[in-house]
Amino acid sequence: MTQDDSVTNGESAAPDGSVTLGERTRGPVTRVQIARYAGAVGDFNPVHVDDEFARASGLPSVIAHGPLTVTLALDAVVEQLGPQALRSAEARLSAPVFPGDELTVVPTADGVEVRKADGTVAATVRLETGTR
Amino acid sequence: MEDDLTVSPDVLAALVRAVGSPAGAATAALVPYFGAAVGGESTAVDGLGLDLSRALLAGIDYDWRRPFAPGERVHVRVTVEDVFRKGANQFGLLAAEFTDAAGDLVQRQTVTFIERGSGK
After folding, report:
1. Is A90 within 8 Å of B59 when comparing Cβ atoms?
2. Fewer CB atoms near the end CB (10 Å): N or C, chain B?
């Protein structure tokens, strides 16, 4: 991953001048956080806000919105590169995130992945960065 | 579905609180909308013909031209990009394009839903 030299908030510079993302943690995710996200984007699907509905769907509890998990991953990147550096993202969700999950946003060859404490990958995000 | 929206500073502030990090304000300006929820639940359910109780969000892609500006007016156009079956699973893709007052693209989202083993 590379980007322009003008953004220097927190990332490390490789010998060739490119920028390398570091690992960041987000969470633990809370029910309040999930409810706030529901309110912000207007997604009140009961699987995110109603424990009874979630359990009837075979889940142990409500789950975080997939876009919230992706947003937290992007936030870990924005923290390091700034918002202007992001051009595109392709996020794939692979496991539900529950209240109490602490997430680690780990750099990969072409973006980041979001890992739960047990190592399960909750999301994989391919990123394209650069100047606009 | 098409609509005109104001990028509400209150909504951005709510999203910043949900993100809960020092970079939250910058992040919120990139992702203040979830395309599938812009037109309410019916956009995804009616448009894609999915059973909401069995549909899962499988992915979301963003193509950014710039962050949203607080208070600006944007036009959003949500379209069904594709609906297809793969094995026992039904997939549905929604696209949401946000343009500014000048008609320039702010961002494009593609949202992928999967309904497992629907047997339709």
Report:
1. yes
2. C
Q: What is the DSSP letter of A76?
A: H
Q: How confident is the model at residue A10 (pLDDT cuts 50, 70, 90)?
A: very low
**CB nearest to A92's CB, from B36, B53, B58:** B58
Domain B2-7+35-115 class? alpha beta
Query: Complex ipTM, two decimals?
Result: 0.89
Could you give the domains of chain A? 12-129 (3.10.129.10)
C-alpha B96/C-alpha A42 separation (Å) is 15
The answer to whether the Cβ–Cβ distance between A88 and B57 falls below 8 Å is: no
Token pair for A115: 């890992």
Distances (CA, A) of A24 to A19, A37, A126: 15, 20, 16
Tell me which amino acid residue B23 is. A
* pLDDT surpassing 50 at residue A17: no
